[in-house]
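Run folding on both entries below.
>entry_1
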Amino acid sequence: MTGGGPVGIVLVSHSASVAESVAELARGLAAGGPVAPLAAAGGTADGGLGTSAELVLAAAAAVDRGAGVVLLADLGSSVLTVKALLAEDELPEGSLLADAPFVEGAVAALITASTGAPASAVASAATEAYTYRKA
């Protein structure tokens, strides 16, 4: 899908502080030019640990610029929540769940989205982060 703006990124975590911290790291590493919209959807609506479909939907709506939204999820139920929202067609058109490591994938996705790449390329860049060797 193509639209008027960059692809948006949503980080879905069981923890609000984890989602916000990874978002802050990704923004810092992608700085130096215009940065694609990025939102954190962590924890439950009452601030506890868990995943909130409502927070995910609100975050996706906040970053949607018409070019699609790529979502990265950390663990089990956050992945299931995103998959359910996709299956129920509740997320913005062109939304994709990236099968990617949470931290490295978030950075790769944001940098790629900030170049104006389409959602499929953003998701692919996040997935490719699995190949980053550390030793």
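>entry_2
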Amino acid sequence: MPTDLRRPARTFTIRQLCLEFKCTPRALRFYEDKGLLNPARDGMNRVYSYKDRARLQLILRGKRVGLSLSEIGEILDLYEADESGAQQAAKSLRKFKERIVALENQKVDIDNAIAQLQQGVAMMEQRLAETRPDLLPRAADYDQVLRHRLDGVEHSEAK
């Protein structure tokens, strides 16, 4: 007797998906307008399937790594056309590698900007130490205030 390995016919409301993925109903409606999601309707309510949930997960993951919505759409469309997923995997692999190169370039640019800023800070601190050392403690206090405000970012290496 063969077993049915398909997912059960569970559905999700817009609210459930918004809570699970920490996004807004407006975002889900926007993805629907762009053709990335296609929920069923029950009167005026949107009813999302496991497939819609999986597509949303891929959309959000693609956005998180910097893919455009059109690139995400291309990848999702390939999945519909290719049941084995081989074309989707090949296209995704190419897009992901392109994105890795772009992010690595951005990282180099960011590292250079940080180095330049640190050099500027060191020069200003040296200048203040020579001309107005009384201003340095306030500069350190200001630095602490900024670090406190940016509390979500680790600063332990910078100290």
